[in-house]
Amino acid sequence: MLTTVTQTRYDAFMLTPPYIAPARFDDPAAALAQVRRIYETSVAHLREALQRFIAGETPTERVRACYPFVRVQTDTVARADSRLAYGFVSGPGVYETTLTRPELFARYLEQQFDLLLSNHGVALEIGTSSQPIPVHFSLGENDHLEGSLSMVQRNAMRDLFDLPDLAAMDDGIANGTWEPAPGEAQPLALFTAARVDYSLHRLRHYSGTVPEHFQNFVLFTNYQFYIDEFVRMGREAMAAGGQGYTAFVEPGNVVTTPAGSTGTPPPRLPQMPGYHLVRPDHSGITMVNIGVGPANAKTITDHIAVLRPHAWLMLGHCAGLRNTQQLGDYVLAHGYVREDHVLDEELPLWVPIPALAEVQVALEQAVAEVTQLEGYELKKVLRTGTVASTDNRNWELLPHPGPERRFSQSRAVALDMESATIAANGFRFRVPYGTLLCVSDKPLHGEIKLPGMANTFYRERVDQHLRIGMLAIELLRQQRPGQLHSRKLRSFAEVAFQ
Predict the structure, then answer these.
(1) Domain region containing 10
(2) Percent of the chain as helix, strand, coil, to the nearest 5
(3) How many structural domains compose the chain?
(4) Which of 25, 262, 342, 485 has the fewest CB atoms inside 10 Å of its own CB, making it the most exposed?
């Protein structure tokens, strides 16, 4: 039903769904149910109005529906457990955030609600916010506007519906630059609902799979060889009954289970194809081929971050910068030199990107178990040190000794184009991160990457490197989320939602 409400900032009457007033909840499941009710009512309203518009009916007023919000208010700094890294607000005040896609984030939201209730002992307030849902974000998975609208209708849409507004989607909260207006509530989450919706749509575009398939542990790689091996492992796991996983998903939402496959592969792969070994609780493994370069690395992590994964790891190739390294050796990054230049505005270069002990230990243990080496023998194939990431693929051609001198001064042991970006965005978005690279050439020492040499290297190392990364995820999965999402990634006044 379309209901007319009173004057708005557009100085016009609007068609909105029936208003659902804020209500207080002390049960996380009931709070989540109210979020669902508000969101589903709002989205149904927009879809109904849009269908009428596409059919040729022009609304007499502007059409609008808004996101649900959650709010918590406390008057004390006390909380139940000071050891926690998330699940509490930083001090007395009012905190809130808008919410979207409760069916996708149900488990996550219920956990966050439960932590707030447990830590502060005050009720949650759930209601309808004043943040409009852009009509594009109300569409179903297979709905597309462009082919259904005439030029006249497309031109009229801005006057009749709310369209995506980039001013409502910036990352000021995550970047630590957001300042509340007088009387405005403090944020509960890093991302508003509109920012989340924007990224969910971008993920479909870039990865070729819907967000529902993404898992809580993510591997990034810069070479298709790793993806080929991951696909082989995924399909073999399904043929063997799953081996702890329920499905393997490929671009085009091609889903393979032990019972068979459904879906049609796309005619061409998307820009950064995603593959998913699925577990029922989303604790499986997603792997994304980000290609070469820091721009893609930033783009995909900007969007995957809204899914709040438990960790992401970079597995890729690098240039070894030390003469003692051999092709095929591993590098475990414990620091980063950032010459990628894609995050300079969001995360200044003076911000250190630390190694995270939990991830470092898991990666080193995985290398030891897969290679069957330990102690001094392990040091022959695994070096811990600083990784430099550059946005200049032909850095070797810069005047000597410019980059070589800088890398030496930084104590770098390896160089690539993506690792620092992925780690920096993990730090920025509070997603635990790690990097394990494999030396594929040594340009400073005359061993450049040639076709024959590279092919031999790929055959010998890709399978082992990928198995190390997957084992590291198995080890991280055994830890409590509170161990991974540690206090080391928190700012002074951190949001409650991890």
Answers:
(1) 3-201
(2) 40, 20, 40
(3) 2
(4) 262
Phi, psi at residue 308, to the nearest 5°? 55, 55
**Claim to verify: residue 399 and residue 481 sit in the same structural domain:** yes
Task: Kindly write down the DSSP assignment for every residue of 73-123, as one continuous string.
Answer: EES-S--S-TT-SSSS-SSSEEEEEE---TTTSHHHHHHHHHHHHHHH---
pLDDT, tens digit, for every residue of 254-280?
Answer: 999 999 999 999 999 999 999 999 999
Query: Is the residue at 498 inside a domain?
Result: no
What pTM value is reported for the model?
A: 0.93
| Residue 153 and residue 161 in contact, taking contact as beta carbons nearer than 8 Å | no
- For residue 319, the one-letter residue type is A
Q: Which tokens sit at 161?
A: 């519906």
Alpha carbon distance 240, 248 (integer Å)? 12
- CATH number of the structural domain spanning residue 169: 3.30.1730.10
Structure tokens at 208: 């070729």
Domain boundary among 201, 232, 250: 201
Do residue 224 and residue 166 come from a single domain? no
Phi/psi for 197 (5° steps) reads: -60, -40
